[in-house]
Structure formats: structure tokens, C-alpha cells
Specification:
The chain is α+β, with helices and mostly antiparallel strands. Among the domains are: about 100 residues, Immunoglobulins (Immunoglobulin-like); about 110 residues, Immunoglobulin-like. Helices cover about 20% and strands about 40% of the residues. The strands form 6 sheets. Strands 17, 20, 21, 22, 23, 24, 25, 28, 29, 30, 31 and 32 form a 12-stranded mixed β-sheet that branches. The longest helix is centred in the last third of the chain and has 21 residues.
Length: about 600
């Protein structure tokens, strides 16, 4: 019984060559013997042997193994003598291909265990056959090295113009992994067919990079000849369609009229020799007479206010002097000396606030989303431009305002605006994108006023404008007294009033002073702004996937050639306006 079992195993091993226990996938190979070029050209009713060698990878023949043959496509009556054959001791297996009476184009797949399939293309024709020697030339904008691999597909009974409408049609021949300039010969092509040869080039990331197509009419294909053709590979159209996040940096002239109005109270704080003491005393005198002081002294004064006013410096060209009308040191001089004794640089820093405010409002950045369509054949495309946020930056700090309608945009919500409502014309040519003139409205005055509440006072080490009057008053010392108590001691004594004469008026004066300094900002807050833009930028495709990723760059930003801010009835051209853009991954709005 044991001997019979062993004999059965040996018999199974010899008769079933398609299961080889000593082989794994990829350790066998099929080699075409006839036809060696992988194509057959047959006249109707012809017969042709198809022979293949089955070998180990080192090249030793594998005998007694099954090799399968299968037809794909429409043979229109042509057939195979068998669908499989067993290799002889030399590893050879063969069948016969039998052509029918009708022209046809199909292919045969040959397979065996643990080996890669082989393909044989078969054509049946009454008119004879021709060979096409094919090569490619890259004629795009980059170097040839950008095209790593080339694939060529050959279609019959088609022209290049018909390829777009021939959905689902399979090529009759193909060749992969060519390089630019490398030649391949398609053999045994029926000479009575028209052909379309489409070749595509891919980059190192296997992305479609360049392509070309050549129509080959049968008039160019005399039988039994070889025709050499070359396909020009031109760059695939660049993809623009999608959203790009832009960042625009604006520089506006520092002569902005609304800005000058907003800062007028600050000019009063620093434009006289004895400021800020002069403005402080204006507010104190007004607070002694007016239950709602605004730092503007007018109307009838109370006795206390008149006594204090009498000790103030003589007025000349709007500024108080060091002496009062009686020739004594003025209150402005007495208070200003104490300010400068305690903080010698305060006046300079106060004067710089106006300059700082100018910098805050005339240098800002705008984040926005530019949505682009795909260019047409003339390079014309459509854009929409949506502002998302506006930022002012000063002294290493920044304040960002999220504009209504910006989804997920970080920043302080503020106001309502009307974005650009209609499409914007744009043109792409020679790696440059020109964006036509367009406008959108922003609550610029409101944002500017809010920013002025925060930034310019950083030089005073203050968090907001409302603390500025307290900063001034806190620098006034008189013995052990500071602030309003020190001012009370100096002013009440000089005006020959009882101590504590300013106990109520001084705190009210500080509040009035803060309101007065802010009054210009309130006026600016009522000013909306319309930003108008049109510009030009280089675009780039850094990874070579034919998708535009960048608009402008750090080294060469785009320029808004025509840019302005309109406030009220005045237009202020930007002194600088540059932008860069980065493609967003999602194309959703």
C-alpha cells in the first residue's frame, strides 16, 4: 500500500506541470518564439504557428507544463487550434492561429503558472501590412528631463479629432515606459486602416504632463513598407480651476484726510510747549463749570473755574506760555515741570503716538479668497474675489478683523460689508495672471477706529487709549502725593482755593480727556471704505503636476497695479500693494 501511494504521488508530479511546488510567482517566464515581435499579420484563411518557451528565470526549460491561450477582442471568425498546450522537454508549447475570411483585429493572451502573461496582437487584412516606427519629441515649456516616461497608444479607424468622441474604444497596440526620443516599431498593421497615434508623457510622480496625437491616414501606408513618424509632446493645459488664498499687503499715503481728522485731538495734546499740561488744564477748567465736560472751554465759568483760569499762562497763537497775566509762573509750567521731572521722555512718546497711528492705518494686510475658473482657448478665465479678514500690525502685535461672511476666519467680528458681487475678468498668458478691475466695500473706518484704540499706545506701555490721561496724571508728583491729589495741591494753592477744590473735577476731567482724544476716531468709524484692485502676478507649478499652486511668490509677489481706497468722496491710491496666493486643497466654496 505504501509503495502504491508513493507511485501515485510521483505520477501526479509528472503529469501536472502547471503546479510546481519548487516555484513561486515570478520565478518562471514565458518567451515568445514565433512571432518574436509579438504581432501577427495574416491574410484571410491564413494559418500561422504561435510558439512560446516556458523557462525558469535562469533560463532552464520547464517541460510537461500547461500553457494557456485565450482570444480577446472580436476575432470575427478567426480562431485558435487549441486553448492550451503542454510544453515539450525543451519547454516549448505551440498552437495554430487560423484566420477567417473576414478582416479583424484582436489579441491573444498567453499564460502559465508563476509567469507573467504575454500578449500577441493579431490583424487579418486583405490589403497587406505596414510597420510604424514611432518616436516622440517634447516641445513644452520645461526641460525634456521633466518627462520621465512615455506611453503610446495606437487606435484604428480613427483620427485624433475622433478620439474625444470614441468613448470606451480600446487601442489596438500600446507601448509603455518609453523615454522621450526612444523609438518603437508597431508591426503588422493593416495598410487599409486609418490610425490615430496618441502619446502621453508623465513626470516623476506619474502625473500626466504632456501629450500629443498624430492622425495617420491610410494613403500614407503602402503595404510592406515601414513608415517613420514623430509625435510632438506639448504641455497639458494648466489647471487653474479652484480657490486660492491671497494675502495682500497695502501701503497707503500718510496724508489720508480721515486719518488727519481722527488724529486732530492728538495734535492738540502735543503741539504746544506746555502740552500735555495745557490740554489737561483745559479739561479741568471745563469740568469745574460743565457737568458734562468735553475739554472745550466756552460759556460762563464758575468762580472756581475762573480762579484756576486766571493762573494759566498767557495765550498766544493757541498756546499757553510759561507766565500768567500777572507775571507769575503759569499752572501749565508748574504741572509740565513736574511731568518732565518724573518722566522726561513722556512728551516725546506722546508726540510719537500720532506717527504710530499713521503707521497703523496706512500699513495693513488683507486675506481673501480668489476663485478661478479654467481658462478657455484664449487664456480668458473668470474670477471672484472674497475678502476674509483685515489685519493691522504695530510694535510686534496685530489685530485681525474677521469680515462677515468669511467661514471659519479667525479674528474679531466687525461690521457688515458687501463683497464683490459680479465676476471679474482675468487673462492667463506666458505664466502671468492678469486680474481685471474689481471692488468691494469694507467697514474700514470702523476697523481703523478700533485699531487706534489699541495699538499706538504700546509705546506708553498701555493696553488702550482710555488709560492715556491716567498715564499723564500719574507722572505728576507733589511731595508724597501723586495723580489728581498732587494736581489738586498745586492748582488749588496757586488759585488760592481751598484744598480739595478738584476732588470731583479732576476725575471728571480725565474721563473727558479720554473722550476728547477718541472723538476723532468716532468720526472715522462712520467712514466706510471701498477697495478697488487690478493687478498682475506670475503663477507657478512647482511640483510639475500641471496644476497652478502659487500666485506670486515671496521673492516676486504679484502687484496690484491699480489699487486704491475710497473713503467718502476721496480716493487714495495705494503707494504699495503686493500679493501672494496659495492654492487651497478643497475647491468647495
Amino acid at each position: 500500500m505504501k509503495r502504491a501511494l508513493i507511485a501515485g504521488i510521483l505520477l501526479w508530479g509528472c503529469s501536472s506541470g502547471d503546479t510546481l511546488p519548487d516555484a513561486t510567482p515570478g520565478e518562471r517566464q514565458l518567451v515568445l518564439v514565433t512571432p518574436s515581435g509579438g504581432t501577427l499579420g495574416l491574410f484571410p484563411a491564413d494559418r500561422q504557428s504561435l510558439r512560446v518557451a516556458y523557462r525558469t528565470l535562469p533560463g532552464a526549460p520547464v517541460g510537461g507544463s500547461k500553457v494557456s491561450f485565450a482570444i480577446y477582442g472580436d476575432p470575427v471568425g478567426s480562431s485558435l487550434s487549441a486553448d492550451s498546450a503542454v510544453t515539450d522537454p525543451n519547454g516549448l508549447a505551440s498552437i495554430e492561429v487560423r484566420a477567417a475570411a473576414t478582416t479583424a483585429s484582436f489579441y491573444i493572451i498567453i499564460s502559465a503558472a508563476y509567469a507573467e502573461d504575454r500578449r500577441v496582437d493579431v490583424a487579418v487584412s486583405n490589403e497587406g501590412f505596414v510597420s510604424l516606427r514611432v518616436s516622440t519629441v517634447y516641445t513644452g515649456d520645461y526641460s525634456t528631463s521633466q518627462v520621465q516616461t512615455v506611453q503610446c497608444l495606437l487606435y484604428d479607424n480613427l483620427s485624433c479629432a475622433g478620439l474625444g468622441t470614441a468613448l470606451g474604444q480600446e487601442p489596438i497596440r500600446s507601448r509603455d515606459k518609453l523615454s522621450v526620443g526612444e523609438t518603437h516599431v508597431f508591426q503588422n498593421l493593416p495598410s487599409d486602416s486609418n490610425y490615430a497615434l496618441r502619446c502621453t508623457g508623465r513626470n516623476i510622480s506619474d502625473q500626466l504632463y504632456a501629450s500629443g496625437c498624430l492622425s495617420i491616414p491610410n494613403q500614407l501606408l503602402p503595404p510592406s513598407l515601414e513608415l517613420s513618424v514623430s509625435v510632438d509632446l506639448v504641455d497639458e493645459p494648466l489647471t487653474f480651476e479652484g480657490r486660492y488664498q491671497l494675502k495682500t499687503t497695502f501701503g497707503l499715503p500718510n496724508t489720508l484726510r480721515p486719518l488727519a481728522g481722527a488724529l486732530a485731538p492728538w495734535a492738540n495734546l502735543t503741539d504746544c510747549n506746555y502740552d500735555p499740561a495745557q490740554l489737561l488744564l483745559d479739561c479741568i477748567v471745563d469740568a469745574l463749570s460743565d457737568p458734562q465736560p468735553d475739554c472745550i472751554v466756552n460759556g460762563t465759568m464758575t468762580a472756581e473755574a475762573a480762579a484756576v483760569a486766571a493762573e494759566r499762562g498767557s495765550l498766544q497763537s493757541g498756546c499757553r506760555g510759561s507766565k500768567n497775566d500777572q507775571g507769575s509762573n503759569s499752572l501749565e509750567r508748574l504741572l509740565q515741570d513736574k511731568i518732565e521731572d518724573n518722566d522726561p521722555t513722556l512728551n516725546k512718546r506722546l508726540a510719537q503716538t500720532e506717527t504710530s497711528a499713521v503707521l497703523v492705518l496706512t500699513q495693513f494686510s488683507l486675506k481673501s479668497t480668489l476663485q478661478l475658473s479654467q481658462p478657455d482657448g484664449n487664456g480668458t478665465l473668470v474670477a471672484t474675489h472674497q475678502p476674509n479678514s483685515l489685519s493691522f500690525t504695530f510694535g510686534g502685535a496685530s489685530q485681525t478683523y474677521a469680515l462677515t461672511g468669511a467661514k471659519g476666519e479667525a479674528g474679531k467680528p466687525i461690521g457688515v460689508f458687501q463683497p464683490s458681487s459680479g465676476p471679474v475678468a482675468a487673462i492667463f498668458s506666458n505664466w502671468q495672471l492678469a486680474v481685471g478691475e474689481h471692488s468691494f466695500s469694507l467697514p474700514f473706518g470702523l476697523m481703523a477706529a478700533d485699531a487706534l484704540e489699541t495699538f499706538p499706545w504700546l509705546g506708553l506701555q498701555l493696553s488702550s487709549l482710555s488709560n492715556v490721561p491716567h498715564k499723564i496724571v500719574d507722572t505728576i508728583h507733589n511731595g508724597n502725593l501723586t495723580g489728581c491729589e498732587a494736581i489738586d495741591a498745586v492748582v488749588c494753592l496757586q488759585a488760592r482755593l481751598s484744598a480739595g477744590c478738584l476732588s470731583t473735577a479732576c476725575p471728571k476731567a480725565l474721563g473727558a480727556m479720554a473722550t476728547y482724544l477718541r472723538s476723532g476716531f468716532s468720526e472715522m468709524g462712520s467712514e466706510s471704505g471701498t477697495i478697488t484692485l487690478s493687478g498682475l502676478a506670475h503663477v507657478s507649478d512647482p511640483n510639475g503636476d500641471r496644476v497652478i499652486e502659487n500666485i506670486g511668490s515671496t521673492d516676486e509677489p504679484g502687484i496690484w497695479l491699480n489699487s486704491s481706497l475710497v473713503m467718502g468722496d476721496e480716493s487714495f491710491p495705494a503707494s504699495t500693494a503686493s500679493f501672494t496666493g496659495l492654492r487651497l486643497q478643497s475647491a468647495a466654496p
